[in-house]
Structures are given as C-alpha cells and as structure tokens.
Amino acid sequence: MIDTQVKPLRAFAVFLRHEQARLTAKWMAIVCADADLVEADKLTHEQLADHLPAILEGICTALDEGDLERVEGAIERNAKKHGEVRWQQGYHLDELVRELDLFRQVLTGAVLEFAETHSYFTRHHVARTQHLIDEALSFVTLTSIREVIDEQNRKINEYTGRLEQANHELTEKQRLVSGLYESRMQITRSVVHDLRNFLNAFSTALQLIALAPSKAEVGLALATRQAEDMKRLVDEMVEYSIILGDRNPLSVEQVELRALFDELVAASRPSVEAKGLHLAGVFDASLTSVMSNRLKLKQVALNLLSNATKFTGSGEIELAMGRCEGSHWYLRVSDTGIGIASSDKVRVFDEFERAAGDEIPGAGLGLSIVKELCRVLNGEIHFESRKGQGTTFEIRFPYCL
Q1: What domains are defined for the chain?
Q2: Closest by alpha carbon to 102, among 57, 36, 146, 43?
Q3: Which of 44, 182, 274, 364 supports an S-S bond with 354, CB 3.0-4.6 Å?
Q4: Model confidence over 307-346: pLDDT tens digits?
C-alpha cells in the first residue's frame, strides 16, 4: 500500500534526489559518446558535471511545489552560471543546447522508469511531471544561451575597445612618426644649411690666403672662427643625442652649490667678456649643498649661459642661485639680449628651433637640452622675455632629488 498523503510528483522528486549520481553518470556517458559534443571530451568529470546537480535540485524543488515559478530565481542563477562556465570552456551554442537536450532525455527515461514501478504514478502524473521538466530545462537552456551571448557581447565589446585603443595608438604613432620624419628632414636641412655656410666661409678664407698672402692672418682668423662654429654645432648635436640616449639610472650625489657656482662663473667669463659683456654673479650665502646630479646641473647652467651669450650683443649676463619657498632652490640666468617674441615662446624649447633666425649660428638645441635635463632632474622651468629687452630663465630644483 502506498501512502496516499505522499503526492506523486513529490515522490518522484525524492526518487530523483536518490538517483542523482546514477542519472548524472548516465548523462555524462551519453554526452561523452556523442560525436557532436567535441568540447565535452576535453573536460574532467567535475568540469562536465558543472552546475547540473544544482539545476537538478531546482527541478526537484519545482516538483515538490508542483510549480516552477516559485523556484525560478534559483534555477535562473544556476543556469546563468552554467552558461558562463560553458562559454569559458569553449562550448558553442549548439553544443550547449545539445547537452541540455540529452539531460532532458535522461530525465524523461527516469520518469518512465518511475512510472513502471509505481502504479499510483498515473499517465496524468507522467504528463504533469514531463511538462514541469520540459518547462524547467527550456528555461535553463534559454537562460544559458542568453548568458553565453552576453559573454560573447562582453568579449566583443572588450575586443572592440582594444581595437579602438590600438587604432588610436597606431594613429598617434603614425602622427609621431610623421612628425619625427618632418623633424629629421628639418634637422638635415638645418645642419646642411649651416655646414654649407661654414664651408663657404672657410673656402673663402682659404682663397683669400692663396690670392693675397699679405692677408693670410685675416684669412686664418676667418677660417679659425668658422671651424670653431662648426665644432660648436657638432658638439651641440652630440650632447643632445647623448642626453636622449642615456638610459642609465640617474646618479644622485651631494652637490656643493657654492663650488658649482664659482666653476660656472669661471668657465663662462672668457666667452662673455670676449663679446664685451659684463658677467654678474649673485649667490645666496644660505645655500649649502643639495642632493642632485652635479654634471647635469652644470650642463643646464652652461647651456643657459651659452644661449644668453650668443643672443646678447651688449649689456650684462647674470648668473644667480638662491632659495625658493618650500623645498626648492633656483638657478637663474638673465641677459639684456634680443629677447624672445611672444609668438616664439611656445616653440622655444622645440628641437632645432631658432627664434632669432639663421643669422646667429647654432643647431637650435640649447633649450631642448635644458628641457630634457630638467625633466630628469625634476626641474621646473620658468622664463620671462621681452623682445629687444632681454630674457630671464629660472629653473627651480628640489633640494633632494
């Protein structure tokens, strides 16, 4: 005699729970034997089973309640996770649908098996049970498919984003390459122009010596000056290439600023006074030492002093070092030279830019060198200039780099 208080659908749910391991194993054997399920062959037992036990428990709960709606949320969560995992495992949509259909067939066989051994489980109960199972697995299949499609869309969006970023970077690199090409062409034109002028003047000096031996001294002086100008041009380009190509870690040391200041004044005075200019030095006695790179600080100052000397026809050049507020000190170079026009200020630090034109020799790299060195030394560049009145460059460095 059967307990008439036990609902037939609930009795079948008990049967499914009891037979879960056997039914899962049966389903896995069918899946592994199916030639259309290629990805399934690559999975372990645990990977293949995945969320199937949880989905089966959801179906059993639906049978307990006699209604799918009450457990729809739990089944949906497991179905989404199942779809996500299958996507990660490389399943195609047709494989996902196929394996769930095989699971449906296994459960249909279990319904018939239960009906054969339990006479109270009538055709009506079989139909009701089968309807719930079909409804549940259709919901699982649809939800899993949606999750796979969502994963595909997320991946497509991710790849699209990467492609857009790569395209942007490629466009930017093409722009930079184009700019670099134009810059190098400008370098070539600039250097060739300067070297040609130097060589023409040098040739003129040699012809003067050959045609008028009495003027040999004048010719030699002209030739010497041109050779010195060519050397400065080449030295400037070599210095800039070395700075750009330096990939060694920055060496930080204790730098005595008073000693560096005196060295800079002594090194610059001859060229400044050779042009009839006055070199003034102002040093804040409260400055002692800083942690930085002495050679690079010297390069910054010498390039600023060289620039000031080059573009100043009369008057004074001043080198100053002093304290700033906070944790910085400054290096300042001022001149009474030709100044920089407002329209040229935005490009004054660009490579091979010579705001004064071609009449003053040089590669136009002095301030580019200063800019690169200041980047390495964490220096902040400030400058003021007025056309025809002079220029002041002030670099603010940290006491401790």
Answers
A1: 8-165 (1.10.490.10), 253-398 (3.30.565.10)
A2: 36
A3: 364
A4: 899 889 899 999 999 999 889 999 999 999 988 877 777 7
